[in-house]
């Protein structure tokens, strides 16, 4: 009785600090989004390719879109594409969870989810040589 209780107390702060991504969100992604966006968010599925789905594993895409935009796309869909509105089927928490989940695809080391070791800093560009004195 005591052990599971302690475990819950120890684990709870870690869960609270992390984005609200639990197994339910992963399952939701797999059931409702992965057919087009891919389990890995790269859009590399049969439907994804057919519908011209882009990749969320793209640092530039992640930089260009803030959470509000991503949330709006999920809730309202993207007109003129096969991305439909999911707003009437999802709770606000589920939408937040999906936004956070999409962020986990970000390959950039500057954001929270680091899946690969950061790239070493680029070598300093050498200064041009001074002009030859005549
Ligand atoms: C039937 C295929 C399909 C399904 C299922 C689908 N999407 Fe999309 N989604 C698209 C297409 C097509 C686009 C528009 C092209 C693009 O932006 O990659 C898009 C765009 C988006 C965008 C905006 C991308 C941008 O650049 O503005 C987000 C965010 C998104 N989808 C999230 C989701 C989530 C979350 C789910 C599951 C709840 C989901 N999609 C389910 C096809 C789909």
UniProtKB/TrEMBL annotation:
Whether Protein biosynthesis counts among this entry's keywords is: no
Keyword Metal-binding on entry: yes
- Entry keywords, A to Z: Heme, Iron, Metal-binding, Signal
Record Pfam families: Cytochrome_CBB3 (PF13442)
Q: Per the database record, which ranges form the Cytochrome c domain? A: 17-106
Q: Which InterPro entries match?
A: Cyt_c-like_dom, Cyt_c-like_dom_sf
Superkingdom of origin organism = Bacteria
Where is region (Disordered) located? 110-134
Biased amino acid composition, Pro residues = 117-134
> A Gene Ontology molecular-function term?
electron transfer activity
| Leader sequence segment | 1-16
Under which name does UniProt file this protein?
Answer: Cytochrome c family protein
